[in-house]
Amino acid sequence: MDLNLMSADITAKRTINCFELWRIDRLWTLFILQFGSSCYFFSVESKSWDKAREFCRTTEADLVVINTNDEKSGVGNQAVWIGLTDKAQEGTWKWVDGSPLTLQFWEKDQPDNGGGRVSYGEEDCIQIRNTPGFWNDVSCETSLRWICEKGATLFV
């Protein structure tokens, strides 16, 4: 009998309800949505992009990464932070999971990095515009609500 097989690290996974997943983290279940294989938490308060991301990460989530048209529709048309930034290199947009931007929903004439207006500062973070749900680059210091996303799979 192979003892290595007996002592192998066996991990099982199961898909669970998002309300159950976030209840484990003791968050409010009132503002949670399950869509596909992801769970989404919609904040009711406003923070800078970095503070919003910090909040998400304390719950083992991150700011939402929008991968499909359906996901864009699912997260709605609220003025919120999403997990897209060009902080590392101006003009090179990356998602918080490290993936490059492929699917794009820019507002007309965006991104514009403030349109050259010094008063806007650097616009390195992305918000969804509340009408009609397209994206706009704004200063990461702007205070907005946000959406966290985490997988609906729990490894046990």
Automatic annotation (TrEMBL):
UniProt organism field: Oryzias sinensis
Source organism phylogeny: Eukaryota, Metazoa, Chordata, Craniata, Vertebrata
Keyword Disulfide bond annotated: yes
Protein name: C-type lectin domain-containing protein
Keyword Repeat: no
Highest taxon of the lineage: Eukaryota
Matching Pfam families: Lectin_C
GO molecular function annotations of the record: carbohydrate binding
UniProt KW keywords: Disulfide bond, Lectin
Signal peptide: none
Coiled-coil segments on the chain, per record: none
C-type lectin domain location: 35-149
CDD domains recorded: CLECT_DC-SIGN_like (cd03590)
